[in-house]
Amino acid sequence: MLHLYAGPVFDMAREQFHLIADHLAIPEAERDRLLLPKRAIVVSCPIHMDDGRTRVFPGYRVQHHLTLGPAKGGTRFAPNVDIGEIAALAIWMSWKCALADLPYGGAKGGVTVDPHTLSMRELEGLSRRYMQEMIPFVGPRVDVMAPDMGTNEQVMAWFMDTYSMYQGVTVPEIVTGKPVDTGGTLGRREATGHGVAFLAFRAMEALEIDPVGATAIVQGFGNVGAHAALGLAARGVKIVGVCDHTAAYYDPKGLDARELVSHAQRTGALAGWSTEAAIDPRAVMEQPCDVLAPCAVERVIDADLARVLRCRIIAEGANGPTTPEADKILAERNDGIFVIPDILCNAGGVIVSYFEWVQDLQQYFWSRDEVMDRLERALDRSWATVVARAKRDGVSNRTAAQAIGVERVMKAKQARGLFP
């Protein structure tokens, strides 16, 4: 069955799982049930294009497990999406939800498409068709969708409306990350980036680094990277480097985070912000800084890059940005780079998504201050648990975080047993 999910991203998730399974001494006979997804769906999404053609886009949804509650995970529209990547992201989401002690299993979905090539009408058509194809497999108590790369609040509103039209009643709790006017929660948009910055400050406290005057480089400048940069800058950290898929800038004197975010929101990318301070996107990550925040895609910190990093903290805003080979090299270095692993560092998004789901179910909504206060308290609990586990077992933060996540899922499966 493993051959169904072939690909470098799934291979990375599988390697991480077996390392944790060895660490926890999980018997070989019990590993497949913990690793392999419960359900994988592949659909065709035909839509009418503006030029009169009909195009068919492949869509996916993987539900890793439903042991602790409904599956939960984002939906990605990107040209390189495949079933292996989606399965890996669902596995990581399972560990992330378990680590945060949320009543969810992990899920992920996606469509193989470059959304930037679609008109607004085409994007709406594809979003609605994808949700239509998923209706037999999702629901507020089965699988709750959220935005991810290439999707946003508007796409979630189309998802929710499509599902609601088929049910005959409004069902806001079928998705999270919606506009506030359609049942979304205050604070969701900035939650992941806010969490990255919040935990970077926790790491700075642990390492006795004064945020005022500290430096940061943010790789990836979508929603997560932009809000991480704003959150870091708000506490006095100097943003010295940023990059996305279109451009990279570095200036040891500092860059104006608000100006960069304003430009990216206005134009959709960093390209064109300045003719000065331009640098190669990979080279920007090699520059000296206190905090390096990879906030884009998987596998950007490979073995070669790990050897030359000059940061003190890696705050993983993206899912799976550091390969297992890079992890080994970071562990062997004698300068002690402090890694805040992805399933802890970027958990702010799913935590506030959980808050949104709860508010929708109760039809009772909280203020932004209540949301952010609850978020920071949840992140603090997870942070303390991971740091204590790493210290107790003499392992890396990543091993500690993943061990907690896998262990909680394993114990729940053992307690429930195997039906029939």
UniProtKB/TrEMBL annotation:
GO terms for molecular function: glutamate dehydrogenase (NAD+) activity; nucleotide binding. Gene3D superfamilies: Leucine Dehydrogenase, chain A, domain 1, NAD(P)-binding Rossmann-like Domain. Substrate binds at K72, K96, S353. The keyword NAD applies. The record marks D148 as: Important for catalysis. Keywords: NAD, Nucleotide-binding, Oxidoreductase. Residues 185-417 form the Glutamate/phenylalanine/leucine/valine/L-tryptophan dehydrogenase C-terminal domain. The active site is at K108. InterPro entries: Aminoacid_DH-like_N_sf, Glu/Leu/Phe/Val/Trp_DH, Glu/Leu/Phe/Val/Trp_DH_C, Glu/Leu/Phe/Val/Trp_DH_dimer, Glu/Leu/Phe/Val_DH_AS, Glu_DH, NAD(P)-bd_dom_sf, NAD_bind_Glu_DH. Belongs to the Glu/Leu/Phe/Val dehydrogenases family. This is Glutamate dehydrogenase. It comes from Roseiarcus fermentans.
